[in-house]
Amino acid sequence: MSHTSDVFIPLNIAVLTVSDTRTLETDTSGQYLVGQLQQEGHNLIDRQIMPDNLYQVRAQVAQWIADDRVQAVLITGGTGFTDRDSTPEAVTCLLDRIIEGFGELFRQISHQDIGTSTIQSRAFAGLANRTLVCCMPGSTNACRTAWEVILQPQLDARQGPCNLVAHLTQTPACASRG
């Protein structure tokens, strides 16, 4: 069965910035993601900025995963290798399935820009309750890389031979698959 559509299917996406220092005014990474998803025709359903607190991040992401209106969650920040970075620990326990290729491809592409420092990136993605959760570093350049090379095509139902839209809740592609 094909995992593509002839028409664009707008998704409902939530954006979370995990940072101890950023505000709406200084959050260039979150703003970049919001701008790109809206430019593509997707819907911003919620946007939050919260400190790098494992339990607060986990609670917010769990709330979005449980909300049938949210089809994807994009998280920027907290994926590094410092003691304060806790996004992977906050989120991975919520996932039903890990998308290994997301982190692998992100690090491969990032190597061109930042060299071997890419080994310290713990970017990852997965599915939970038919909701896509993508976690990427907090830099705007990292978000640009993730969006342009991975997310934009995979969040477009017309992308072939397959895309992630077919696996998400409340889309015509999902409804037709039963």
UniProtKB/TrEMBL annotation:
GO biological process: Mo-molybdopterin cofactor biosynthetic process
SMART domains: MoCF_biosynth
Lineage: Bacteria, Pseudomonadati, Pseudomonadota, Gammaproteobacteria, Pseudomonadales
InterPro entries linked: MoaB, MoaB/Mog-like_dom_sf, MoaB/Mog_dom, MoaB_proteobac, MoCF_biosynth_CS
Gene Ontology molecular-function annotations: GTP binding
Positions of the MoaB/Mog domain: 14-158
Pfam families listed in its UniProt record: MoCF_biosynth
Pathway: Cofactor biosynthesis; molybdopterin biosynthesis
One cellular-component annotation, GO: cytosol
Recorded family membership: Belongs to the MoaB/Mog family.
Protein role: May be involved in the biosynthesis of molybdopterin. Can bind GTP and has low GTPase activity. Can bind MPT, but has no MPT adenylyl transferase activity.
Nucleotide-binding as UniProt keyword: yes
Sorted UniProt keywords: GTP-binding, Molybdenum cofactor biosynthesis, Nucleotide-binding
Protein name as catalogued: Molybdenum cofactor biosynthesis protein B
